[in-house]
Write a structure and sequence with these properties.
By secondary structure, this protein is mainly α. The chain has one helix spanning about 1-55. The N and C termini lie far apart (about 80 Å).
Length: about 60
Amino acid sequence: MACGGCRCLRCLQQVKHEYILIRNKLEALFRVRLYIIVYRVVILTRQEMRHKNSRVLGCHI
């Protein structure tokens, strides 16, 4: 019976380890996704500012 308990404990430890790995990967994925969103906002803002400046100056891009 003790041996079965050891296997159960090892399985639980393995599940915990895999959970931590998946959690860390998901956190990294969401961080990258956030960086992409911020980057897009920055690019769109710069494009809008360039467009507004070109209209003020009478330039056509």
